[in-house]
Amino acid sequence: DAGITQSPRHKVTETGTPVTLRCHQTENHRYMYWYRQDPGHGLRLIHYSYGVKDTDKGEVSDGYSVSRSKTEDFLLTLESATSSQTSVYFCAISLQDWDTEAFFGQGTRLTVV
Amino acid sequence: GESVGLHLPTLSVQEGDNSIINCAYSNSASDYFIWYKQESGKGPQFIIDIRSNMDKRQGQRVTVLLNKTVKHLSLQIAATQPGDSAVYFCAESSGGFKTIFGAGTRLFVKA
């Protein structure tokens, strides 16, 4: 899948605990994104990055933070997980900004209990 | 507000028949449209895209049609195969990081 690895693939965590999801790419693409996918909704953008240390908020950024210290890694952190953050999280990369196809990782299924 | 939707949440077709999946969009400023396929347990996979200066674009067994007058997008799959069973969703973009994804249509292919 276009050299994108998400880890972990599955995680169950308790409410109030911090969680970090990792996205690693081997494509050297400039742009990276975190989405969440919930039943009845299309993919919703949480945060995106347009370069090392360059990030910005997406549509549903509350409760999430990101970091990108290297081109290949984009981390998503839930500072204090809540049940509403139970979802499937996808990382995506693209070579240019959004007027081009995106490549998605396999997803991380996160359950907050 | 801006939205991307699908007319049919579930579509069942016979193997070998053609499939048509529809999508409506509401932002007239959108100039780039994409169809993705998502198989169970996997991430979305790019199928085909089209820009607003085109009405039709063909790929391998797939065709995307864009009707800007009625803000409608469709994906046609020729000679549908069991491996085509998946969720298909469209996305619209007006540039930058403003992409909106539809919720998806599940395609079932009956053998």
Please name the defining characteristics of this protein.
heterodimer; A: 113 residues; mainly beta; seven-stranded mixed β-sheet; four-stranded antiparallel β-sheet; 55% strand; globular; B: 111 residues; six-stranded mixed β-sheet; five-stranded antiparallel β-sheet
Structural write-up:
The complex is a heterodimer of chains A (about 110) and B (about 110). In chain A, about 0% of the residues lie in helices and about 55% in strands. Chain A has no helices and 11 strands. Chain A has strands at about 5, 10-15, 20-25, 30-35, 45-50, 55, 65-70, 75-80, 85-95, 105, 110. In chain A, strands 2, 4, 5, 6, 9, 10 and 11 form a 7-stranded mixed sheet that branches. A 4-stranded antiparallel sheet of chain A has the order 1-3-8-7, with no helix packed on it. In chain A, strand 5 and strand 6 form a beta hairpin. The radius of gyration of chain A is 13 Å and the shape is globular. Chain A starts with a strand and ends with a strand. Chain B has about 110 residues and is mainly β. Helices cover about 0% and strands about 55% of the residues of chain B. Classes of the chains: A mainly beta (about 110), B mainly beta (about 110).
Walk me through the topology.
The complex is a heterodimer of chains A (113) and B (111).
Chain A: E1 4-7, E2 10-13, E3 19-25, E4 31-37, E5 44-51, E6 54-57, E7 64-70, E8 73-78, E9 87-94, E10 103-104, E11 108-112
Chain B: E1 4-5, E2 10-14, E3 19-25, E4 32-38, E5 45-51, E6 56-58, E7 62-67, E8 72-77, E9 86-93, E10 99-101, E11 105-110
Parallel strand pairs in B: 2-11
Antiparallel strand pairs in B: 1-3, 3-8, 4-5, 4-9, 6-7, 7-8, 9-10, 9-11
